[in-house]
Each structure stands twice: as C-alpha cells, then as structure tokens.
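To fix ideas, we quote verbatim a fold written out as tokens:
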Amino acid sequence: MKNRNTHTGLTALGTSLFASLPAWAQEAATATTEAATATTETAAALVPYVYEKAVDKGDIAWMSLSTIIVLLMTIPGLALFYGGLVRTKNMLSVLTQVFAIVCIVCLVWLTYGYSMAFSYGGSMDTYVGGFSKVFLAGVDYTTLVPTFSNGIWIPEYSFIMFQMTFACITPALIVGAFAERIKFSSLIVFVILWVTLIYFPMAHMVWWWGGPDFLAEQQTLKLIAEAAGDTAGAEAAAANLAANGLIWNWGALDFAGGTVVHINAGVAGLVGCIVLGKRIGYGKESMAPHSLTMTMIGAALLWVGWFGFNAGSNLEVNGVSALAMINTFAATAAAGAAWMFAEWILKGHPSLLGLVSGVVAGLVAVTPASGFAGPMGSLVLGLVAGATCFVFVAYVKNKLGLDDSLDVFGVHGVGGVIGAIATGILVDPALGGAGVPDYLSVPGTLQVAPYDAAFMITAQVKAVLFTICFSGIGSFILYKLVDVTMGLRVKAEVEREGLDVAEHGERAYNM
C-alpha cells in the first residue's frame, strides 16, 4: 500500500536512528556500561510521532462513487436477483422487503448504528461501540477518519455513507432464505433488532481500530516510555494499541466483509429458514423461478456494484484498490465458470441460474480476500468456491431437507467461510498475496510482516467460528422473540394466495 506521509518525527527505528546521530554516539562511548548507553541512546533518538491529515479530492470522489454503486447492488440489484427467483405471486413482496430494509436501516444507521459500530465503546469496546456519536453528534463536513495509509484521511461523511450501504445490504441478503412465507411487519421488527444486536457489534469487532497514525503515535510513545523506564506510560500506550475490536485483535483479515456481511447473513438466513419451516408444497409443487431474465439483470448489477464493495473498502485510490478490483474480476469469472461446468458435467446441462449463482458465489468468496490475495490466488479461490457452493446447493441442501428458498446459506454462508479461511492462505506473498500489514515495526510506515501460516489460518478459523456462533445463536433468539410476540409466518391461506396481494395489496404484474 502506497504511503504519502506528511508527518514529522520518527520515520524509522533501530540502527538507522542511531546512525543519524554520530556525534552523540561518540560521546555515549564514555558511558559506564553498554546497557546504559543503549538506553540513553534510544531515549534521545525517539521523539513523539507528529502528523498532518491530508485529504485528496480523488479519494473523496472514489468513495462517493463506491457508495453509489454499492447501493446499486441492493436496489435494484439484489431486489431483482431475488425477485426473479420467486414465484410470480411473491415478486412484489420481495422487492418491497429489500427496498424497505434499505430505507429503515439507513435511518437506524444515522441515528445510532454508526456510533455502535465505529466509536469507542468504553469497557465494552472489544465488542461494540458506544453512543458518543448518536445522531451523528460531533460529526460535520470538517471531521475526518483515517484510511489504511499514514497521513491519508477522508471526510467522515464519506466513511459513514459507505459503511451505511454495507449495513443496508447485509440484512437484505437474509430475506432470500425464507422468501415467500414471512410476515412483512415481523420482518421489519426482526431486521431492526438484528442490525442493532448482531450486525453493529460484528462490524465493530472486525473493523474497529484507531488507524495507522494512531498506532504510530501510540507505538512511539510506548517505545519512548520503555526506554525511559516509565512503566505506567508504556502500559497506557500498550492499552491504547489494543483498543480495537475483538476479531481485529486476533489478527484476522477481512478486507470487505466475509465475516461481517456474508457469513453473518448466511448463518442468520439458515437459522431463519429452519425456524419458519418449509413453504407449503415444498418438494411437491413446482417452485421454479418466475423470471430468470430479472435474476440475470440483478446478478449483473451485483457484479458491477461489487467493485465498489471490494475496491471501495480500501478507502482510497492506490494500488491496493486496483488489486481488489482485478481480484473481483478473477474470482467471480472463475466461480461462474466452475459452477457452470460442474452442473454441465453432473446434471447434463449448463443453466443460466447456475451460471449467475456461481458468479455470486465468487463475489462472496473473494470479498474478504480482495485486498490481500493475488489475482491467480483469487482465480483458484473462485474455482473452489463455485464448485463447492454448487455441490452444497445441488446435493447437500436436499439431503439436509432445508428450504433455504434462494440459497442464502449455500452461497453466502458456504462461500463466505471458504473465502474467509482462504484469505489467511492467499495473503502469503509466496502465493502472490499482498502480505500481512504491519504498522508497528517501523511506526509511520506500512511494512509487510513475516508470514506465519499457522497463526494466520488459526486467526481466520477463529473468526469464522465466532461469527457462526454469534450470528447463529443471536439470530435464533431474535427470531423466537419476534415469533412469540408477533408471529413470524403468514397464515396458510395468505401463503397460498401469494404475499403480493395479501400483504401489500398490489401485484408485480397486471396483464
């Protein structure tokens, strides 16, 4: 990642620092012991990290564009993708559900969601943010947030809007798992509870950190305190360095939402389809998609919008955003082809539904790896994800007896798990990856840490297992709470008639 540092003070540590002070080093040679010399030398060389916040118009433009096309992913992209997959009598209900979720989550995000996800949470900071930014308190057009490069910042409004589109699409993904049978009012209540108690904490635990300049500042203060024998100062700086989300502190990598978005939504969808039960006539009546044309249009819009989803997650325009973009091409194309050929071989025909489902599986799998893997690693990831998700959807789901209406878990859950774990492997520079970022060894610059396969894979597996448990258990509790108080499922006669007329009083088509 390219750095455009504008800070003054510490730019390197170790021997380079001491070599810059030859006169002092000669005087230090008269000290009584070498240990005392080293301590005094380090204390004199280190100075507090000072920096300026540079904002580039190009970064602002890029984040604005990324935000817009991520919204395009959801409305109309996801809405059309899901809408085409249901029966005609439920098309309008799916469109309404997705569109309403975007509107409502937008309001929740602006009032308290952003604060819960991206502010300091006090004693609970490891798990969730606080309420210091409720109603966007303290935020205006002059406030800034850090990117991943030292000295490079963007307007906080840009960051708020970009992350808001993630908060909107994640619960919208869930509805595909129990499409055609959930009450609209109950869905809205569930979504509000779910984003509040599941999504915002997950976003905080995975993505909350102080930024590169804060880390450089605190690491420098820690080194200064240690050199001066200031135990309290060193401990305070160390505590600030650790004031990040739980999963971030584990060292797990998630560039654009493998855990936060896809596994989170996939598991919630799986739990939801089990709690609500199967659709009436499932396995006995034809429930074929009513418009694969609409589904193809939606899938194409998802792929276009996903460039903002992945490349936009870099928060600035540089080589890493280009890496995320080419990876989004490579993995997606590979997964679409893998699903198509697997279906062709095993079922005798290549279907459009299979092709577009594979494309989405590739998009899901590459999401956490998009800024870390290399293009060839992403290509292999896409091949594996496309073939694996096909097998799950075509065979495993039926064996398990799941009525996951639109294969939310089969694509987002399974694809998300594959991508999240593979990220820990494909980040290895030996495999063409970008390497694990290291902001601490030389404060003020971004280094590539030595790759430790055991550590990285363990961290990724821990993050995946935690997300599955947190989302699965939490979602189950919320589903049951709504079911007990309001009822989750529409009446049998409503389901048979279709949700369009019974729930919304209108039809998708009047012909």
